[in-house]
């Protein structure tokens, strides 16, 4: 274990995913990568491009799109073209099932426009067709020098692999449980498919694997075994995580355990969006998992008290929310202008009990008055009290102080 409490990072091969000048490295000693997926109809090229842009602006470093029909495959080059015109060079990952072998072969412009393919070995065909169709997809990847994620999912597990392992299990003197059989079938499907891809001609540093389930403990068990049995780059994600707090909590619980153990090279938080909710919420959650655990920094962190009987006013809650939204919305611009700003902390506290102390520990902090306290809000900059704000414009004035601090301390010299 390191002095920070993190386990040593599980050694994996580095996989490079790129488009134009945008290059994302997965695995090795590189930072854990955040990715997401659109839920638009890919045939709608402009609508899909706009959602990809939204996800990329939120911080998704790879964006996956569904390629499920000839019309969708034909739209992919136009999606890429629209993104390039908007100056959005995030690499696109094509998600293929069932007919992927035909789409990649019949639509070479699609195959070339994508930066990476995702193939589910449980959905590439049955019987004698399965190996041939899988090989066809891998051959296209090798031809265009594209990396591939071999993504096994417990809801579409390769039945031939499952049947074989069940038969083997029946011969054991101490048979495995049904859950152990399922775990082994997931892992075997992924590793055998990855080896088959290598045998066809895809290099090991072009392969990412995943084994997704929807139960937290099962996911942890599967990936712990995967890490012991291979050095392929690993994509983490709890499939069908759910909606709202349930999906956030489940994903956080599963991913945090594995990341703490040094397992995982790229993650996705697969949230079901609230009705009319933003798809980019899953990106924010993934970033916050990595940032709160100390693995990466994406945006200045806002420290805020939870509130109690001393803070019956909602002023501090509103200011904390406004500041957090402001900081996140500015990051797409700031990250190119203010090096290191993502490591800044801002404290928005609601009374005199912990307010001044917490504010002093942040780069910038404000201690708002609690119920019955003097209507004044001292501001602390790098531990020193600099000004006391009063009146109806505290929020605007504090935001200006934050902006001035960033320009002074993180501006390019």
Automatic annotation (TrEMBL):
Pfam families: GcpE (PF04551), GcpE_C (PF26540)
Pathway(s) per entry: Isoprenoid biosynthesis; isopentenyl diphosphate biosynthesis via DXP pathway; isopentenyl diphosphate from 1-deoxy-D-xylulose 5-phosphate: step 5/6
Binding site for [4Fe-4S] cluster: 305, 308, 351, 358
Phylogenetic classification of the source organism: Bacteria, Pseudomonadati, Pseudomonadota, Betaproteobacteria, Burkholderiales
Protein name per the record: 4-hydroxy-3-methylbut-2-en-1-yl diphosphate synthase (flavodoxin)
Protein function: Converts 2C-methyl-D-erythritol 2,4-cyclodiphosphate (ME-2,4cPP) into 1-hydroxy-2-methyl-2-(E)-butenyl 4-diphosphate.
Sequence similarity: Belongs to the IspG family.
Gene3D superfamilies per UniProt: Dihydropteroate synthase-like (3.20.20.20), Sulfite Reductase Hemoprotein, domain 1 (3.30.413.10)
